[in-house]
Design a protein that fits this description.
The protein has 17 helices and 40 strands. The protein is an alpha+beta fold and about 650 residues long. Strand 24 and strand 25 form a beta hairpin. The longest helix is centred in the last third of the chain and has 23 residues. The protein is globular, with a radius of gyration of 27 Å. The termini are far apart.
């Protein structure tokens, strides 16, 4: 919509009832509601979108990133009405949108492809048979669609059967097409893609590559352009094959050809996305090409303004996908809620934020959990990464869990900094899952010192009132104090004294100096700690001594008490933890898609008992112990909240 405005084109937004207050609705010149929250009744319902087109007299439709963006029937309906589809023609949508057909075309166009079966997998038995013929591990994936949905890796027959069942259901739910293909899974590759542009005058070019190897559950998390791994010769070969594939189907508009690249720079065609990619801004940063503007121009019949020789690589760009997710659960399970505090770091230079939300927006169970795309640009990779780290530090999101801690940790990982990455980066470097940023001893002391400063400021604020400072006894001004801090299972005794510089805090045998040029009302604070600037966020602080600080994206929760309060607290009896081993809880908010057990049924540890659908992904839940199903608290189709008990086993 920003591009349309710059080009002098009026825009119309379509929205579901759940998105009535969404940012894109406010940005558009007009807006039309296309139905209730479920995508099948709104964004994916072609009749409703066509009604909006007729109602507003729209002359063209840009389908965005998902939903109907690769739906050939939608493109046909628009063409029949004389409305331009800002994307490829239906032939290309059909050929490239079907992974089976696209692989056959890629072979014909002399594009490198992954070994596998080129037909549709009929059932579980055939999937197992083909997997054994190809050789494990294998990848089962939906023939239609993309975005990591309808994809499973299988390492044995059992996983193949389960993967076929879950991928089929997921593909049917997300794309209305349950067909699957199966191919060899290339272990430990890089995921690198080539952006192409093609017009109706026979002109085609590629806009270099994007590195998209940092992924979780086959969905990209961090992207960058260019890739540290690709040399000019490989870049040219990949670009030429991408253009060759596009030309083989008379492709028109912007498209992305995705490849898997091994350690020897051998590359294999993965799929072609016949739409604008989420990560397109990083290509725009290093080439100076406005891809959305080019799509609109091409749809209008204009030729490309550029030749291949005009496409540069200027600088470096990085994109982080900021999700409403809990990164401590399987690297990110969805989180829902209302954003009661939201501030993007757009005040920083060379920082771009593409988002569809704002403060007060609701993150619901119906759609993808992405909050925004955070993009930084620098003259080289170190500068782009440094800007990204600062932008993440100053990105304020309150009301939902988010993945900024994981993004920060990956960006600061030595292997990532060296460019030594693959699609298995998260699994390899976080084998026990993501546990948050691991503090060094001096960083631990710094946070304890800041927490003491916060508590002292809070005490001073609580003890002061208008025109009474002169009446307050010196002992009550509280310029110094001793605190007992409970942090996880550890106790710390800290003393603090206010000085002309700021605060002098003693943590054990160490002394930490903190300046006072910050206050409790700032979301982001930048105190000088031992004369070095730091960036933190105060997530929570109150007069009861609860303090939560965010540092390097990770939240640290503390309880600060006076020494007397701590002594009295130690005399209280400890609570005995309840036995919850038999509870099967929802790992994220969603809908109970299916139940495999009933009350009184015997189950074994690890047995699948139910499936929860959240944001178009299916999540299989297993019994945590052997026993008998005692209670089932929900029915199929019910909505469940995060950590809500679905059933109990005794």
């Amino acid at each position: 919509m920003r591009t349309c405005r710059e080009m002098g084109i009026k825009s119309v937004a379509v929205y579901s009832e759940a998105d009535a207050q969404a940012l894109h609705v406010q940005m558009a010149d007009e807006a039309v509601c296309v139905g209730p929250p479920p995508t099948g009744e709104s964004y994916n319902k072609i009749d409703n979108i066509m009604d909006a087109v007729r109602k507003t007299g729209a002359q063209a439709v840009h389908p965005g990133y998902g939903f109907l963006s690769e739906n050939k029937e939608f493109a046909k309906r628009l063409d029949k009405e004389g409305v331009a589809f800002i994307g490829p023609d239906t032939l290309a949508l059909q050929a490239m949108g079907d992974k089976i057909e696209s692989k056959q075309l890629a072979n014909s166009a002399k594009v490198n492809t992954i070994p596998g079966y080129e037909g549709v997998v009929k059932d579980e038995d055939e999937a197992v048979k083909l997997a054994n013929q190809i050789g494990y591990p294998v990848m089962l994936k939906a023939s239609a669609g993309g975005g990591g949905k309808g994809m499973r890796i299988a390492w044995d027959d059992q996983e193949t059967r389960e993967g076929f069942r879950l991928s089929t259901a997921e593909a049917s739910s997300s794309f209305g097409d349950s067909r699957l293909l199966i191919e060899k899974f290339i272990d430990n590759p890089r995921h690198i893609e080539i952006q192409v542009l093609c017009d109706r005058h026979g002109n085609s070019l590629y806009l270099n590559e994007r590195e998209c190897s940092i992924q979780r559950r086959n969905q990209k998390v961090i992207e960058e352009a260019p890739s540290v791994f690709i040399d000019p010769e490989t870049r040219r070969a990949m670009g030429e094959q991408a253009v060759s594939l596009a030309e083989a189907v008379d492709y028109v508009s912007a498209g992305t050809v995705e490849f898997l690249v091994d350690s020897q720079r051998n590359f294999y065609f993965l799929e072609m996305n016949t739409r604008l990619q989420v990560e397109h801004p990083i290509t725009e940063c290093i080439t100076g090409v406005d891809i959305v503007q080019e799509m609109i121009r091409i749809a209008r019949g204009h030729p490309l303004k550029l030749k291949q020789s005009d496409i540069p690589i200027n600088g470096w760009a990085v994109e982080c996908r900021v999700y409403a997710e809990n990164p401590y659960k399987n690297f990110g399970l969805p989180s829902t809620g209302r954003l009661f505090k939201y501030s993007e770091p757009t005040h920083l230079p060379n920082v771009r934020v593409d988002s569809g939300i704002r403060e007060g927006s609701e993150i619901s169970i119906y759609y993808d959990s992405m909050i925004s795309k955070l993009i930084t640009y620098g003259k080289d990779r170190p500068e782009a990464l440094e800007k990204m780290a600062r932008a993440l530090d100053e990105y304020v999101i309150k009301g939902v869990k988010h993945n900024i801690s994981l993004l920060q940790d990956v960006l600061g990982h030595q292997k990532f900094i060296e460019g030594d990455i693959s699609t298995k980066f998260l699994q390899e470097h976080y084998p026990d899952g993501f546990l948050g940023y691991q503090l060094q001893p001096d960083e631990c002391n710094n946070l304890l010192a800041v927490a003491c400063c916060i508590q002292l400021k809070q005490e001073q604020k609580s003890r002061s009132f208008l025109n009474q400072a002169s009446l307050m006894p010196a002992s009550l001004k509280m310029e110094e104090a001793s605190f007992d801090i409970l942090w996880d299972e550890d106790h710390y005794i800290c003393t603090i004294q206010e000085t002309s510089f700021g605060y002098e805090v003693h943590v054990g045998k160490d002394t930490v100096l903190v300046d006072k040029n910050w206050n409790l009302y700032q979301n982001v604070i930048t105190p000088q700690i031992n004369h070095k600037p730091q960036v933190l966020q105060i997530i929570k602080q109150n007069s009861s001594g609860d303090v939560i600080l965010q540092y390097n994206g990770t939240e640290y929760q503390m309880k600060i008490m006076t020494t007397e309060a701590s002594r009295l607290g130690s005399l209280m009896p400890e609570k005995v933890a309840a036995d919850i081993s038999g509870e099967v809880r929802a790992p994220m908010p969603g809908k109970l898609q299916s139940l495999m057990v009933e009350i009184g049924q015997k189950v074994a540890e690890g047995q699948e008992v139910c499936v929860v659908e959240a944001m178009k992904m299916l999540n299989s839940l297993q019994a945590s112990k052997t026993g008998v199903v005692k209670k089932i608290l929900f029915q199929v189709g019910d909505s469940v909240a995060e950590e809500e008990i679905i059933l109990e086993i005794e």
